[in-house]
Hints:
- With 86 residues, this protein is an alpha+beta fold.
- The protein has one helix at 2-20; strands at 23-26, 29-35, 40-46, 60-62, 67-73.
- A five-stranded mixed sheet has the order 1-2-3-5-4, with no helix packed on it.
Amino acid sequence: MKKLSFTLIIALLAAGGAWAQNEFPFDGLYYMVTDETAMTVELISYNTSKPTGTLIIPTTVSDGYDDYTVTSIGDYALENCSSLTC
């Protein structure tokens, strides 16, 4: 019984962690849902190719089902992107 309970707890924690990490790509950038109720996301990283030149971050993005408002840029979202211009 203890083994079953322990396994169930681990499975629930893993499922909760996977749900909390709701990330998705949109137009070459990756976003993480920060508030499911308010439908907001944070820019967290770029795809395999670094953005160069002028980068336009949209005000809204879609995961294919829902539209989200971009409210922030993560601390390391554009790390090593030295070819961006202002």
